[in-house]
Amino acid sequence: MNLLWLQSAGCGGCTMSLLCAENPGVLDVLDGAGIDLLWHPALSEATGAEVRDLLADVLEGRVPLDILAIEGSVVTGPKGTGRYQMFAGTGRSMLDWVRDLAPLAGHVVAVGTCAAYGGMTAAGGNPAGAMGLQYDGALEGGVLSPDFRDPAGLPVINIAGCPTHPNWVTETLMLLVDGVISEHALDPLGRPRFYADHLVHHACPKNEFYEYKASAERLSDMGCMMENLGCIGTQAVGDCNIRPWNGSGSCTRGGYPCIACTAPEFESPRLTFTETPKIAGIPVGLPTDMPKAWFMALASLSKAATPKRIGTNATSDRITVPPQPKREKT
Amino acid sequence: MTRLVVGPFNRVEGDLEVTLDIEDGRVRSAQVNAPLFRGFEVMLQGRDPRDALTITPRICGICSISQSAAAAFALADAAGATPPPQAQLAAAILHGVENLADHVTHFNLFFMPDFARAAYAGRPWHARAVERFTATKGSGARAAVEARAKLMHITGVLGGKWPHTLAIQPGGMTRTPTLSDKVRMGATLRAFRAHLEQALFGDSLEAFAGLTTVAEFAAWSTGDAGLFLEIAKDLDLAALGIGPQRYMSFGAYPMFNGRATKPGMLSEGAVSRVDPGDIAEDLTRSWMLGDAAHPYDGLTEPDENMADSAYSWCKAPRLAGRTAEVGALARHAVDGHPLARALAVEGGVRARIGGRLLEIARTQIQLEDWVRTIDPSAAFMSDVTLPQQGHGVGLVEAARGSLGHWVRIEDGRIANYQIVAPTTWNFSPRDAAGQPGPLEAALEGTPADGEDATLATQHVVRSFDPCMVCTVH
C-alpha cells in the first residue's frame, strides 16, 4: 500500500511525535508493513516541482492512492476561500486539495485532533475558520460531508490526540494494511477503539489518591487533580497511562492534568485548562457513567476514610509518608 | 529574467514557498512567503493568562518546549516571580533536550538528504551520502531517528510527554524529579553521547567543541560531520548563502546564575547589548493590517483581501530598524566561542551547519553537567499569583534562534499577546525601507541554472532550519 501524507493547518507535532515511535521505530514499521511513502513533507526527498508532478499523477489516476493521511486542521478562511493556507507552489488552497484528494483515496486518516475535529487551531473564536476533515468541533460535517465514506465504507479515521501517540498512528496503519478495520473498530467519533475504549484514568498513577478523593491543591502536588486542577482523565478517551509516552511518561505522570486532548473542542474548556469549574464547591463534569448522588456519597465516605499517608502525600510534591507494610510477628 | 516558484518546499517544518527572480543563471532577488495563517495571537485575547501555557506550545510541534518556556517566563515576569533554582535547572534540561533533538533531526532528516540526490551522482562522496542520508532509507538517518527517540525519554521523565507538555509553569516544574529519575536521565544521556561520538563526530564531543579555527573545522574528517565537510569543500558551501552577518541572541537558558550563553548583537566583529525595546514588527509587505509596532503594542489583524502589495503572512521584525540572523551560529558567535566567531565572518551554508554541530557538542556536555547537579531534595515549585493588571516578557533561545513572548494582562485576562519567533526574524519579508529579510538577502546571487536549478537554493534555505509553523503562528 502507498501513503500520501499532507500537513494542513497544524503544528507538525503529530509527525514529531510519530518519530518517537520505538520498538520498532516508525521507518521500520512502514517497511515491515509494506507501506510505501508516496510523499511526506518532513521525510521525503522530493520537493517543489517533483511533488507537484506526483500530485498531478494522483489527481489524474496515474498513481493510485491507498491511504491519504492529513495532519492538521483545514482552514476555510478568509470568507470561505481557504486562502489562509495556500498549498505552496500550487496556487491552490489546501482546502481544495483535501476535497479533491479524499475521494480518490482507499482510506482517509485524520492524524491528530486538529485534522479530526479542528482542535487547537479552532480555539478562541477560530480566527482562521479551522475545521476537521469530517467534523467541525463535535458537529458532524467538516470540510468533507458527514456522508463521506471511503471505498471500503469507512468514514475518516480520526486518530485524535494533541499530539497523537506514535503507536496510535503506527497501529492504525498496520491494521489498515491487514484490512481488519471495520466501522465497528471505530467509536462514534471515528476514533480507533483500540485506544478509544480506554480512559486516561486507567492506570493513572494517582489512582490511589482518586479512590479517597485526596486532592492536589496546586500543580506539583501528588494528589488527584480532578477536584481542583481541571483533570478530566476520568472522562477522556485514551490509553495514555497504559502505554507510556516517551519511555515512561503521560500528562498525569508529568504532574499536570489531562485536558482530554483526544476529544472535540478540548481547546475550549469551561474555565481554564488547569482549574476545575465548580458549582457550590462541587466540581462539574463528574464521571459520566455513574449516578451523581452515588458519586457524591462515595466521595464523602472515602474522604472521611482517607489514611494519613494518602492525605499528607496528596498535598506534597514528593512522598513524605511512605507505606508501612505490616511486619509478621516472629 | 525568469521567475521560479519553489513549493511545496519540504524538509522544513511547516509551509514555505520561495519565489526566485533569476538572471544570468543566478538569483537576482527572492521573496519568501509563509503561506499559512492560524491566528494564535488572536485566540489568546481575552483568555485566562494561564491558558497561554497550554495554547502556545501548540503553535509548534518541533519547538514546543521553547514556546512553553517563553510563555512561562512571560507570565513569571508579569507576576514578578522567580521559580526555585532547581526548577530552572530542570526546565533548562527539558528545553536543552528538545534543542539537541531538533538539531539532530535537522542534520539527518532535513538537510543532508539533498546530497544523496541523483543530481550529485559522480561526485567522489555521493555513494557515501546515498548510503547514509537517502531520505527515509539512509543508515545515518535511521540511526539518528532511533537515538533521538531514546533521548526523548528525558522529556517523558521531566515533561510527561513531547511535544506539548504543561510541565513548565511560571512557579516551577509540575513534577519533582526523584533520585531514580536523575540516574536514568544520566544513563539516557550517556547512550546519546555514544551515538553522537560514533555516528556524527567520529571522535569525542570535547574534541569538536574545542575547535577554534575555520581551518581546523574544515579539516575535521571523521563521522558524518566529516562527510559534510568534505561535501562542503567540494561544493564550496562556505561561499553559498551568506546572510546579513548581523547575529542576535537573547542568551540561552535563563537561570538563577545568569544565562548559559551570553545575550547580544554581533555586528562587524563587535558585540553590543540587545535592548528588547528596540524591537518592532514592520507590516509593509505582510498581509497584516496596522502599523509597525513594538510587540507590547503589536496587532494581529490579517488582511482578508491579501493585498497584492504584500506577499507573506509573516511580519518583519527588526532590531532598531535592522534585520538580524538568529540561530545556533548566532548564539555561539555572540557567546564568544572562537570557532563560531570565525564562522560568523564566513556566514554561509557551511557556517550555519557548523554552528549547529558545535551546539550539539556543547549542549550534550552541558546537559550531562546539569543532570549531575539536579538535587531531588530541593524545591521545584513555588506559588505564583498572576496580577490582575500587568505585563511581562519571556525571552528564550529556541533551537532555531531568539523567541520572545510579550503579554499584557488587564482585569485578569490577556489583553494582548504577541510572539516573535526565530524564523519570523530569519524568513521575514521586506520592510518599509525595502530591506530584504535575512533569507532573502542570503539567496541573492545563489546559482540557479541547469536542470536542477533550485538545488543550491534548497541548501541555502535548509541551512537556516526554518520553522514555518512558528514563523506566523
Overview of this structure, please?
The complex is a heterodimer of chains A (330) and B (473). Chain A is α/β, with parallel strands linked by helices. Chain A has 2 domains: 2-194, NADH:ubiquinone oxidoreductase-like, 20kDa subunit (Rossmann fold, 3-Layer(aba) Sandwich); 198-318, Irregular (Cytochrome-c3 Hydrogenase, Chain A, domain 2), CATH 4.10.480. Chain A has helices at residues 13-18, 26-33, 49-59, 94-101, 113-117, 166-178, 193-196, 207-211, 292-304, 308-314; strands spanning 2-7, 36-39, 65-71, 74-75, 86-87, 92-93, 105-111, 130-131, 135-136, 139-140, 157-159, 278-279, 282-283. The longest helix of chain A has 13 residues, at 166-178. Chain A is elongated, with a radius of gyration of 22 Å. The N and C termini of chain A lie far apart (67 Å). The mean pLDDT of chain A is 96. Chain B is of the alpha+beta class and 473 residues long. Chain B has one domain (2-472): Cytochrome-c3 Hydrogenase, chain B. Chain B has 18 helices and 15 strands. Chain B has helices at residues 40-44, 52-55, 64-79, 85-111, 126-133, 139-151, 153-159, 179-201, 205-209, 214-218, 223-235, 328-335, 338-346, 349-372, 422-426, 438-443, 455-463, 468-472; strands spanning 2-6, 17-23, 26-33, 168-169, 172-173, 246-249, 254-255, 258-259, 264-267, 270-272, 279-282, 316-319, 390-398, 401-410, 413-420. In chain B, the strands form 6 sheets. Chain B has a 3-stranded antiparallel sheet with strand order 1-2-3. A 3-stranded antiparallel sheet of chain B has the order 6-9-10, covered by helices on one side. Chain B is globular. Chains A and B meet through helix 1, helix 2 and strand 5 of A and helix 1, helix 2, helix 4, helix 6 and helix 7 of B.
